[in-house]
Amino acid sequence: MSPIPRALVVGCLAAALPVFAVYAPVPDQDQVQGKDLNITLKAGLANDSNIFGAASSEIDSTIWTVAPRGSYSASLTDQTFLSVSYGLTVDQFEDRPGDKLLDSHDASLRLAHAFSKTTTIDINDSFMVARNPESLLAGVKLNTDQSFLRNQIDGRFITPLGAKATGTIKARSIYYEYRDAALGRSLDRIENLYGASADYAVLPEVKAVAEFRHQDVFYTKLGETKNKSSDYLMAGADYEVARKLSLSGRVGAEWRSREAERSTTSPYVEFSAKYDYTEKSYLLGGFAYTLEETSDTARFNDTKVYRTFVSVMHYVGAFTVASASLTYEPSTLQGRRTQVNVDETTVRGGVALSYLPTKNWTLSASYDHDRVRSDDVQRKLKRNRFGLSAVYTF
Question: What is the CATH number of the domain that holds 233?
Fold first, then answer.
């Protein structure tokens, strides 16, 4: 078994990405078939108890969904790999004030090149226009339109530093732009993250890791009161046990400099584990402690988050897959100079049951639950979603 994919772990440890999907992992027939060109068509029916994520006066609606998707991957040369994809999601709401027909788009591009067997570069770009976000913003007064544009570019360069040592240079840039003008003035921003790390093979199955990261957060409007930068220094290890269990951990510190506000120093912790108990079934879990951006930049600088997650995919038989995920996030919103801190707890969970009668069909039933308990009553949120879907892979 390969070690835990860092992209997967970071995705779980970070805040849930706001694209519409069930929380529980669902088997991907594209990956099973392993073709260069894959085209899928998804049709679904769901009921959402709180389509705007409101603290009160929730609006319930049935949603019909059609989502075609295409992906292509190929080796351009013996050393260069290309992968592209595009997906369209069309949601029709039965009971929604304003627009009832929403179209969301996502596209990705990956280019990887091997200069040698041990020196590689990997660049990924992910773009989305989300009209019906999965994870809504807590405490947003103008919450009838939380549509946004998001683009993320990741780059990673890996090269050996010696017989047992490897060096990695990486960078990430994320751009957010909200459709609603008021949300845009508050939340439009660019987050840039740069890092360098070195690992040393203490044992064949154990790598010691030292890492430095620098982050800049630039708000495109009124940034002089919200911009900040952070430096991270951390150490840890990656451990692969018996080809079925992988462990990864980092501990360190973050030095955050806030523009026009008090700076702060905070510990940084991330830990994750993945257990492949059968060929296709796995259990993934982890914990992270970090500072993140907040949905209310007028009252708060950022949010101190304690995040625990667990995700499981279990093949009940040859054609049936049960899956579940749970994220538990106690957090403290860090108030600005004239504001008090606010404690809140966020829970996101989901379960799904999928049936794969043939290599082309995936039939799924799912349930998702969102709950925010907060000292600020305007930030409370409760949301339930039930869904049925069918995906056909051409």
Answer: 2.40.160
Statement: residue 70 has pLDDT above 70: yes
Distance CA 216, CA 190 (A): 8
Picking from 288, 293, 360, the residue whose alpha carbon sits closest to that of residue 333 is 293
Percentage of the chain lying above the pLDDT 90 cut: 77
Question: How many domains is the chain partitioned into structurally?
Answer: 1
Distance from C-alpha of 38 to C-alpha of 19, rounded to nearest angstrom? 21
At 243 the pLDDT is: 79
Separation CA 178–CA 192 (nearest Å): 18
Residue 1 lies in a domain: no
Q: What is the pLDDT of residues 137-163, one digit of tens each?
A: 776 664 678 889 999 999 999 999 999
- Neighbouring C-beta atoms of residue 165, cutoff 10 Å: 13
Cα–chain-centroid distance for residue 300? Answer: 23
Residue 177 has pLDDT above 70, yes or no: yes
**CB of 25 closer than 8 Å to CB of 323:** yes
Question: What are the tokens at 240?
Answer: 């692969």
Q: Kindly state the greatest CA–CA separation across the chain.
A: 63
Decide if pLDDT at 299 tops 80.
yes
Residue that the structure tokens 């769901």 belong to: 46
- Residue 242: CB atoms within 10 A of its CB come to 7
Q: Which domain holds residue 263?
A: 6-393
Higher pLDDT, 53 or 371: 371
Q: List the one residue out of 62, 29, 76 whose CA is nearest residue 394.
A: 29
